[in-house]
Amino acid sequence: METVPLFAVDAPAPAVEDEAPKAPAFEVVVRGLPGPQGSKRHVGGGRMIESSAKVKPWRESVVWMAVAARQKIKGFTKLDGPLAADMVFCFDRPKGHMGTGRNAGLVRPSAPLRPDVTPDLSKLVRATEDALTTSGVYRDDALIVEYRQLGKFYTTDHGLVPGVLDGPGCTIRLWRIEQPKAVEA
Question: Quick check: pTM over 0.70?
Answer without folding.
Answer: yes
